Amino acid sequence: MSAMEKETLLFVDDEESIIDVAFTYFTSRGYKVLTANNGREAVALLRDHHVDCCFTDINMPEMDGMQLAEHIHQYDNTIPVIVMTGYPSLDNTIQTLKNGVVDFLVKPVNLHQMELCVQRVLRERNLFIKNVILSKEVEGKVKLEKLNSELMFKVEELNVLNRILSDFSTLRESSDVFKQLVELSVEIVGADVACFYLVNDTSRDPLAIAMAGAQWIHDDKIARPEGMARSALLSPEVEGIYDLIAEVVRDDQPLILAANRGGCRLPKHILSFMLVPMKIRAKSLGVLMACIYRGKRRFNEKDLYYLDFMAKKASTGIENLALYENIYNNLLSTLYAFVKAIEARDPYTKQHSSRVTLLAVSLAKAMGCTEEDQEILNVAGLLHDIGKIGIRDDILLKPGRLDAEEYRIIQQHPVIGYDIMGHLGLWTREKQIVRSHHERFDGAGYPDRLAGMQIPLLARILSVADVYDAVASDRAYRERMTEPKILEIMYEGAGTQFDPDIIDVFRTLYQSGELRHALAVGEDAVRSS
Questions:
Q1: Contact 473, 352 (CB under 8 A)
Q2: Position 222 confidence tier, pLDDT thresholds 50, 70, 90
Q3: How far apart are CA 234 and CA 244, in angstroms?
Q4: What is the DSSP string of 457-517?
Q5: How far is 7 from 145, CA to CA, in rounded Å?
Q6: CA-to-CA distance for 33 and 111, rounded, in angstroms?
């Protein structure tokens, strides 16, 4: 290849937009670009074209990125493969490294970053090829061992970075992000103490809101973690940290100090110290601190890089959570509006969904269900009848008994609700509960004729609450049933219509008055709506 001729790059991705953008950008930079929509197309191109570097997605039809990387590694192990994915995981990273992958990029990928990656891996490729040749000579052995050491360091670094990415990607609360941030700081950079200080327009002085690791008091005694609130530990005014935090916020630059390198600036007791600023949408949020106050180890530039990387990913995580919560709440508001529309069509069922949800959550709590299960039931309960939006008024509001065909149509509402929620790509468990809330314990329900433990537990709970509220409310075709009749229907349904264990809990709650209290709350909501 001449000095003026640039390399050939192969991009493999089933997303046309990524292929188009990469082709346009790298072609304009003078590279020859080949594209494929999946691994099989890429293999065919490799047979007919010389390729210097390959970018590939992981999840693709016909042949995925893992299989393609393995094929390239066996076909020509001098071709560097760079994996791009929007869903990083430790398992993916380890598997790709086994298949000869040299780098691992997380989508969305900056084009300039991709070009820098190309330049680096091609330099490493040239070095690798030269070392393969030198391996035939005696001195080549030393160079190969050095290369292997560098590759092992790269594996370790990728594992650390992927650990950070994976841990922050699973969090669902902002408070959990800060807690995870300080705990990871202690674990990954080996800090004795890590702390996140809130520093923004509403907090003039640094405020420690999350802390992890061992702790000290001013007389050099080590305090137990639970002693933090009773000590002046990490107080900015007392320990001299305030000025350093203010400097980091002002300069928007990470800071690393050690006792043997300008230690006069370090607060008392601290031997090695790092501060990293954290911003949300270009506005200062706070500062992440890590320090060592015992032993011989000191922080290095790699530790500062890891700490800065963690702060950036935590910042992204908080932004994503805020965006997710906004989208989630908007979707819920839209779906609840559908439920209100259904209830407006049928005044007899007004606030039915709210009362059913209150009763179902009360049952779930009494049965020892987790808070997560209760929250899932809260969403599923409010939306359990959303499928009725697709049922004609002449059937939904019919004052008399439904005929066979009309009953068949009304039985479609759980499936309609399931499909509505499925199109949103959220609430996997919730939509299954909506689908199954008319299944019977004896298998005679609908739409799937599930029986016993085949029916999700939360759907079995919702079924009990749904039927209770239905028989205890006025309907278009009948008035509210008497209390003895209601209890007869509920108790005699144990083992046939209902899970008998749930009916036992229902009986206990009913007799204690807790169920009536939950229902009264629902009726208050009806009157105030």
A1: yes
A2: very low
A3: 13
A4: HHHHHHHHHHHHHHHTS-BTTBPPPPHHHHHHHHHHTBTTTB-HHHHHHHHHHHHHTHHHH
A5: 28
A6: 14
Measured in degrees and rounded to the nearest 5, phi and psi for residue 311 equal -60, -40
Structure token pair of residue 243: 């000025």
The C-alpha atoms of residue 96 and residue 246 are separated, in whole angstroms, by 42
| Unique residue bearing structure tokens 């370090």 | 266
For residue 272, the surrounding DSSP H or E stretch is strand 272-280
Q: What is the mean pLDDT of residues 358-370?
A: 93
> Would you put residue 142 in left (φ > 0), alpha (ψ -120 to 50) or beta?
alpha
User: Which domains does the chain carry?
Assistant: 8-168 (3.40.50.2300), 174-317 (3.30.450.40), 346-528 (1.10.3210.10)
pLDDT digits (tens, 9 = 90+) for 439-455: 999 999 999 999 999 99
pLDDT at 224 over 50: no
Instruction: Show Cβ contacts of residue 75 under 8 Å, excluding neighbours closer than 6 positions.
Output: 46
CA distance 245 to 254: 10
Per-residue pLDDT reduced to its tens digit, 21-56: 999 999 998 999 999 999 999 999 999 999 989 999
Tokens of 478: 């009948």
Q: Distance between CA 184 and CA 521 in Å, rounded?
A: 44
Average pLDDT over residues 466-473: 87
Tell me whether the omega of the peptide bond preceding residue 80 falls within 30 degrees of 0, making it cis: no
Backbone angles phi, psi at 274, to 5 degrees: -135, 140
Backbone angles phi, psi at 110, to 5 degrees: -70, 130
For residue 70, what are the CA distances in angstroms to 86, 95, 98? 20, 10, 8
pLDDT, tens digit, 9 for 90 and up, residues 260-311: 554 456 666 778 888 888 877 677 778 888 888 777 888 888 888 888 887 7
pLDDT of residue 165: 54
* pLDDT for residue 217: 36
CA distance 89 to 165: 8
Tokens standing for 309? Answer: 């990387």
Half-sphere exposure of 156 (CA within 13 A, CB side): 9
Q: Write down the residue that tokens 């670094």 correspond to.
A: 157
**Cα 508 to Cα 515: distance, rounded to the nearest angstrom:** 9
Bridge partners (DSSP) listed for residue 223: 215
Distances (CA, A) of 442 to 165, 198, 336, 410: 46, 56, 32, 21
- The DSSP code sequence of 130-168 is HHHHHTTSTTHHHHHHHHHHHHHHHHHHHHHHHHHHHHH
What are the structure tokens assigned to 47, written together?
């047979």
pLDDT tens, position by position, 96-120: 555 667 787 877 778 888 888 888 8
Q: What is the DSSP string of 9-76?
A: EEEE-S-HHHHHHHHHHHHHTT-EEEEESSHHHHHHHHHHS--SEEEEESS-SSS-HHHHHHHHHHH-
